[in-house]
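Table S7 (text form). Paired inputs.
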Amino acid sequence: MSQQPSQTSNPSWFTVAGCSLALSLATGLITAAVKVGKQDSDNETLRGQNEELRTQQDQLSAIIKDWRKAYDEQGAQFQTTKVQLQALENDRCTPLLEQVNQMKNYVNQPYGYGYNAEKVPDLQRVLDGYQQTLRACYNARM
């Protein structure tokens, strides 16, 4: 029996290159598919977060709108109160103003109110005192 050398078939370089290229393409496609799947999953997660943030933004916008409305109402109440306070302060000075006007009449027409010419200087001093008190009343508000 004679032994023949065993023949092993060696693949050609083209076969090795083709298999290598096919394996690289398959690996690339699998990697790309995995990345696309991951991106889809990430996109879905981001969409959910975006929707949640929009909901929170809408809620915060409603709260801010309510705050602005309350602030405007408070400002209106403040203005109303301020006007009422000024009216009360004016009311406080009104009796003095009436007294000043009455004293002016006494000084300008003393005979019509039963006073003689000798009383006019005394009436003028009283009028000056009322006028000073009235000025002080109005200045106290400022």
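Next pair, protein 2 of 2.
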Amino acid sequence: MKRLLILLLCITSFSISQTEKKKIQIESGIEVTQPKLSYYGSTLAFKYEQGGKEYLQFNEKKIGPFEFISLFTLSPDGSRYVVQYEENGSEYFRVNEKNYGPFLNTGRVLFSSDSKFFGVVYFKNTEEKYVQVNEKIFGPFDGGSYEVGFPEHSSSFYFWFNKGKEYFIQFGDKQIGPFEDEPNPTVSNGYPTLGYSYKKEKKTYIKVSNATFGPYDYAYGPYLSKNGSHYAFEFKKEDETLVHFVGPTKDNWKTFDGFDKISRLQISDDGSTLSFIYSENGKQYVFRNEKTYGPYAKVDDIALSYNGSILGIRYVKDGSLYARVNDDIVGPIEQVFYPNFSSSGKRIAWQYVKDGGRYLQVDQITLGPFEECSIPTFLQDEKNYCFTFQKKDGTYLQYKDKKYGPYPWIEYALTKDNRLVFAYQKTGDNFISIEKIK
């Protein structure tokens, strides 16, 4: 993203047909970087320098000065911001009007998906570790999570910590433990179900809600569906690796055995599909419910859509890289990137590099080549998608059958009511434009 010269002076807005437009007036002489839209596009923020200090602009508000801004973040609804900054050799963070610190070291400050909570892990000195969620401070601890976990569509939070040789999980206001080792907690999105592995008397157990599995010499997981009703984990029995799949009733429980080694165990959001990579006789395979793909010399990664209907496989064959999406194969190629899925999981968009050019694959449609491009994002209606791409004359935005650009930079977001919001500046303009389109 190119650096910009901008200073916010005023905002004017007007509406034409189904397009809403807003202008942010700017003037030269101020270096500004990192323009960002909030997740749903309601807020624009950016960083700039003035008089040897750094500032953050949050909509119409100028925030600062700061000695150095290391990171800034917007809440999903755009109502709150975090500035992480350094002053006189110490680290601080600011959430809207309130400053916190000084600290020796801070992790990323994260927001919950409903924007009501922020969480951060920090050190006050070389040994004491603390966790803060809004105004509540937990600690000091000897060690633990690097970040606070916030499940999607929920205000719950979780992290693990240890005091000496005792390990605990903090799940909202509930403390669970002690355990003998790091408990590896995970929480389902939307319907907060807690799952974790833990050790007791040198054996490993898996626990999800009120169900406990074990003891095992080795176990890892669990991996939860979106509502936590389905989950899976791996464990060892003698010299083989097994996968246990758990549904809402015992009639849905299955155990798959006979694997030397597995990796990238995944379960679809709706709990219908289980997939993982496994090794056998020097080859690698991909398991998807009752179907096996392979053999391959090497499987780099897999991606499973939210409803399990689409499986992407990145693999090596005869020394070359290939990508497989269900039964369609593309290759040999030079690079392939993790895909985006539509909200139902029925559509897929991904990017790959071939002969030095970047291509986009949206279902069966191939777009490109491009010099640079983003992976398309699907709107809520799943009929349409948008992406940015670069040419020698600048950056473009493709939405439906219309192309916007070229501009020095473009930022875009998707609203809850299925609209596109994008911000840009034309070369030579003394303002930033923000458009909202149906």
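Residues 1-17 have pLDDT under 50 and may be disordered.
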